[in-house]
Amino acid sequence: MARRPILLVVVIGWPALAGCRPEERPLPVRPPAGGSAWEEQMDARRRMVETQIVTRGVRDPRVIAAMERVPRHRFVPPGIQHEAHDDHPLPIGQGQTISQPYIVAAMTEALGVGSGARVLEVGTGSGYQAAVLAEVVGPEGQVFSIEILEPLSRQASQVLRDLGYAQVHLRVGDGWFGWPEAAPFQGILVTAAPREVPPALLDQLAVGGVLVAPIGEGVQDLVRIRRTDQGLEREVLMGVRFVPMTGGAR
Ligand code: SAH
User: Fold this and answer.
1) 36 in catalytic set
2) Is 19 in the pocket of ligand 1 (CB under 6 A)?
3) Structure pTM?
4) Would 192 disulfide with which of 11, 40, 75, 123, CB 3.0-4.6 Å?
5) d(CA 52, CA 74)
6) Is it true that domain 10-241 has CATH number 3.40.50.150?
């Protein structure tokens, strides 16, 4: 896997800090007035990629193509689909959020996986990040994603199935323990913040594999860990804010 210089400098206070924090506002009950045409959604995604993602330094063409292709509005509750491409996280129910587009792109780029890879995500949420990973690994790859809240997993499963992402496999459970039967993974992406890196996830990382996870409390460190022949290499990419990882293990 080629090493690319990415994401090493991000100013604290950057909108990245709004990674996946639930916002203090209720879900709307009103459906949107009229549907948006396919072209309009496509244009909105192109603008999102240009103004929020490329300008902030994301360069990987696989990630850019994935962000342009995945219909983000489909992963957002009906009443707020008009905000789907805005530069912030959005509520998806159950007190959880779909992450800001830039954060999804930056974490996917940091993971650095390509076509045919086997990837684990912890924190399925809306399923959007799983769809972006599915685009990046392609039809030959596999995405395994774990969500602790059953209603979210169920909803994500339906959207992913409707969109034809057959290479995404979902499970309801505590992602702290990973998905041992599907390991080893070339990439592990964690989208809820544990206080420390879950040891089981490190065990399930292939040699040459990369784990990207927000670690800590409050403003968390987005950490990247690479397993090499010699052991684990760890670096901090930027400050982020994700919902805390819940579950029985902590
Ligand atoms: N990746 C999601 C956003 C994730 S928000 C998306 O693209 O929409 C974080 C998610 O992690 C929430 O849905 C939360 O319920 C889930 N979560 C928190 N702790 C977890 C755990 N221990 N195991 C699995 N999922 C967990």
Assistant:
1) no
2) no
3) 0.88
4) 123
5) 19
6) yes
